[in-house]
């Protein structure tokens, strides 16, 4: 009788353990160096960070790569458990829960050293030409100037092209995260000494790991992920991952 009573409980616990051991299905996209790209070491800074945080939380991550829009929508439909890295917006918050920040982006204005520009002097920017890579969303303050017709915009393929165009005098400035801007200048082959990096930040925002709200255990998965991320930060592994990828980004050819 005792065996009969214990058997269902044992099976239930076993199935529960198997369910919790199921891989966490992740999806991200390419061409967002140094954060995510399958050609980068460990898939990029934030790809490594997300997978390590999940491992710290006792989960086995399984990563897929899709175009950004497809991956985002597929996660929303339940084909994936989570996606990353994304900025927090009201529209996204309606559908997703957001993790603690993975990385803080500090945007600065990059211009020629002989025509140094600062974002606090907006009158300097009137009539100037900003370089914004295709698919990028300009900073809110810049979007206002563009909408008012006070700025001209040029949209090449990538930020490296922007660095070259500014050096040639065809564009006046670009705005990017400090690391992304430094990497673009490095890849352009132009000397860093030819550029002025604004002392004042244009703005800052954070990148996050997203779990669909309609997932049954969404909050639990997010809490476990955040716990794993904290353990990485407390151990120093978080900073090691960031530093390693920063060094690679600035050495890349």
UniProtKB/TrEMBL annotation:
Domain Solute-binding protein family 3/N-terminal: 26-244
Membrane-spanning residues: none
Annotated organism of origin: Aquipseudomonas alcaligenes (strain ATCC 14909 / DSM 50342 / CCUG 1425 / JCM 20561 / NBRC 14159 / NCIMB 9945 / NCTC 10367 / 1577) (Pseudomonas alcaligenes)
Signal peptide: 1-21
Family: Belongs to the bacterial solute-binding protein 3 family.
PANTHER family: L-CYSTINE-BINDING PROTEIN TCYJ, MEMBRANE-BOUND LYTIC MUREIN TRANSGLYCOSYLASE F
Entry keyword Signal: yes
Classification via InterPro entries: Solute-binding_3/MltF_N
Protein name: ABC transporter substrate-binding protein
Keywords annotated in UniProt: Signal
Pfam families the UniProt entry points to: SBP_bac_3
